[in-house]
Amino acid sequence: MVATNLKAETISLQEKRDAIEVEMSGIISRLTQPGGPGISDPLTDSQGFPRSDIDIPSVRADRRRLAELRNDYKDITDKIHENLQVLHSARLAHNVSLPTKDPANGEGSNNQEIPHTNTIASLSSRGGISEDSCIPMDLEPVVRVPFAMVDEIADASPAAEDGLQLGDQIVKFGNVEIGEELLPRLASEAQLNQGRAVPLVILRQGALVNLSVTPRPWHGRGLLGCHFRIL
């Protein structure tokens, strides 16, 4: 019963996270449209006066809401990961040897392991869990958790030409996955692979997408021409 409730809670959390991703993508698109204020650019002109070409109250509201959504997204992702770990532990605890009948003498024997047939289906492309599975449950070997979001992309940059889009969430960049010291590791991965295609796994509008990007010099800054914000 506890595992059933935890499974239902995890599915609900994943649906909430999907909705947050959609809302964040919409806000980022508004803020980074041509002539827009960007995610964090100043709202004043070169002389220190409020910019007259943008709706400053709306921009501030969007930025405030985006910060709230990012915090909610991180909290939900942490909770999903925690739930999956608990479910995984429950599955391991259940998958043990049980006594079976020895057909020769009818006595119990511990030499045969009862197959574990109750499984969770592999996580779907949206990161969801099959609802018709029995419990205890198996999990996908690697939980796909995004660790960064693309919140700025320059026109005609390597990132733009290779297919990255605003709002894409990075699950894996070359050998870099969720963990510590992410920004230095991302920068190092790009430098080490300059001129070579780097495999990339992203979460885009709830679906996992495989891409490759090639870090390379261009007329703008950096080797990719985009900005990753750590989630």
Please describe what this structure looks like.
- The chain has 231 residues and is an alpha+beta fold.
- It has two domains: 1-43 and 54-95 and 111-140; 148-230, PDZ domain (Pdz3 Domain), CATH 2.30.42.
- It is built from four helices and seven strands.
- The chain has a five-stranded antiparallel β-sheet. Strands 1-2 form a two-stranded antiparallel ribbon.
- Helix 1 packs antiparallel against helix 2.
- The two termini are 33 Å apart.
Keywords:
single chain; 231 residues; alpha+beta; Pdz3 Domain; 2 domains; two-stranded antiparallel ribbon; flat
Describe what is shown at a glance.
This protein has 231 residues and is an alpha+beta fold. It has two domains: 1-43 and 54-95 and 111-140; 148-230, Pdz3 Domain.
